[in-house]
Amino acid sequence: MKVVIIVPAFNESAVIWRVLKSIPQKLDGVSDIETIVINDGSIDKTADEARRAQIKVITHGINRGLGAAIKTGMTYARNSHADIMVTFDGDGQHDPDDISQMIVPILNDEADLVIGSRFLQNQKIPLDRLILNWFANFTTFVLYGISSTDSQSGLRAFSKKALSLIDFKADRMDFSSEVLLEAKRHNFKIKEVPIRAIYTEYSRFKGQKNLNAFPIVLRFLVRLLR
Question: How many domains does the chain have?
C-alpha cells in the first residue's frame, strides 16, 4: 500500500521545512510513504527549504494556482502507482497527526474521497473563516447539489479509483468545489472526518482571502453554464 502526500506551496519558505519535518514517516497499514512538494512558482526559497528537508520538489515555472498544483500532484501520484493520495497544505494550518485518520476510510473501502472537515467538532475558528466557509458550502450546494461541511478543506485523501477518474479544470481555489462535482459525477463514496484547524497569523495571511469568494462563485457559474 503506497501513500503519496502532496504539499502544494507558494512562497512558504518561512514554514515549509517545519511542516515537512512534521509529516509522519509511518502510517498503519501503509508500506510506502512519499511526500512531494509542488512548488507553484515561488520566488523565495521554498524549493531550497523543501530540499533541505530531503523532500522531492516539482516546480512550476510560474505561479499557476492551487488547483494547478494539485493537478500536477495527482499526475505524479498516478504515475508513481499510488494507492492513496493525500493533499496537505504547506502553510502549517493542518495537524500532521490527522493524516492517519484521513486514510482509514479508504483502507477500509468505505470511501473514495475523504474530506478533512474543520467544522465537525467544536474548536476555535475565526469568524471570517466561518462566514467564508458557510458561503462556499452554500454556493457549492446551490450550484452543484452537493452538501459538505468543509468544501474548501485543503486536507483530502483520494483513493486509486478517484485518482484515475477525477478530471477537474480549475487552476485556482475554485477547484475545491469542482472536485466534489467530479465525485458526484462518478458516484464516489465520500466521507468527512473531523480535523484540527491550526490558525496562526501566518496561515491566515497565506490562506484564502475573503474577497476571493466572489470571483470563485463567478467561475462556478461560468463553468456550470458551459
Answer: 1
Task: Give the span between the Cα atoms of 125 and 212, in whole angstroms.
Answer: 19
The residues, any chain, with a CB within 8 Å of residue 155's CB and separated by 6 or more, are 86, 87, 88, 89, 94, 98, 99, 102, 115, 116, 195
CA distance from start to end of the chain: 39
Q: Order of strands across the sheet with 84-87?
A: 56-60, 32-40, 2-9, 84-87, 156-159, 113-117, 190-194
Please list, in sequence order, all residues whose beta carbon lies within 8 angstroms of the beta carbon of residue 130, skipping any fewer than 6 positions away: none
CA dihedral 64, 68, 69, 75 (to 10 degrees): -140
Q: What is the pTM (predicted TM-score) of this model?
A: 0.88
What residue type is assigned to position 200 of the chain?
Answer: T
With beta carbons less than 8 A apart as the criterion, state whether 168 and 71 touch.
yes
Encode the chain (226 residues) as per-residue pLDDT tens digits: 999 999 999 999 999 999 999 999 999 999 999 999 999 999 999 999 999 999 999 999 999 999 999 999 999 999 999 999 999 999 999 999 999 999 999 999 999 999 999 999 888 888 888 888 888 888 888 877 888 999 989 999 999 999 999 998 888 887 888 899 999 999 999 999 999 988 877 766 665 544 455 555 565 555 555 5
- CATH number of the domain that residue 200 is part of: 3.90.550.10
Range of the domain at 134: 2-225
